[in-house]
Design goal:
The protein is of the alpha/beta class. It has one domain: 3-Layer(aba) Sandwich (Rossmann fold), CATH 3.40.50.150. The chain is 33% helix and 24% strand. It contains 8 helices and 7 strands. Helix 2 packs across helix 3. The longest helix is centred in the N-terminal third of the chain and has 15 residues.
Length: 208
């Protein structure tokens, strides 16, 4: 990892208001948890990773440094995508990451992105049902969705197994897991109706 480039980039993100105040290192340490969560279920790194709602660069920029995988940073806000493109041009940046601007509901059906990722990572993208629906079509069969979870909240109450099944997904983490990360596997093709048009997943939740 190019730690100088990474800390400098995340400091810029903080100055722009994309990350909260405080030390940058806890953001980096937390982002490494996505890699640890993957390694609980898979022995080799994913060949392609999507950061869903890349925002201020966490976890996407950290993941791009830690893993020698193809990393795509997706965000719907032009100013955040501009920031990500700028820091990826700086000296010390990892080679290969690309930035894609647009709504996940639309881009999930892009032929270059649909089913193209072994891993999708998400931090503060949205409620569980929205995150699952928007991530599902990006994942390849057998791919994993890894989502950062708030502390002390039972995952079984947030990630309905039956609801996930509607989008071809299955929760792998135990029902009594609290906080940390939830890991969800794509076990069958996503039905054609998902994700629904822009805005609908947030108004009419898939579950919960």
């Amino acid at each position: 990892m190019t730690i100088d480039w990474l800390t400098s980039s995340l400091e810029k993100s903080r100055e722009l208001g994309f990350l909260g105040p405080g030390d940058i290192l806890p953001h980096i340490d937390h982002a490494r948890g996505f890699q640890a969560a993957w390694e609980l279920y898979r022995s080799t790194p994913p060949s392609a990773i999507l950061d869903l709602g890349a925002g201020g660069g966490v976890p996407g920029l950290v993941v791009a440094c830690e893993w020698s995988s193809n990393v795509t940073l997706l965000d719907s806000m032009e100013k955040r995508c501009r920031f990500l493109r700028e820091v990826l041009r700086d000296a010390g940046a990892p080679h290969g990451p690309r930035v894609v601007e647009g709504r996940a509901e639309v881009l999930a059906r892009d032929t270059d992105l649909e089913g193209g990722f072994e891993a999708v990572v998400a931090r503060s993208f949205g409620p569980p049902a929205v995150t699952a629906e928007c991530a599902s079509r990006f994942l390849a069969i057998g791919g994993l969705l890894i989502v950062s979870e708030p502390p002390d909240v039972p995952q079984v109450t947030r990630w309905s197994q039956a609801g996930l099944g509607k989008a071809g997904l299955r929760r792998l983490t135990a029902d009594n897991s609290r906080g940390g990360f939830v890991v969800i596997e794509k076990v069958r093709p996503t039905p054609q109706e998902f994700p629904r048009p822009v805005g609908v997943p947030g108004k009419k939740h898939l579950f919960g």
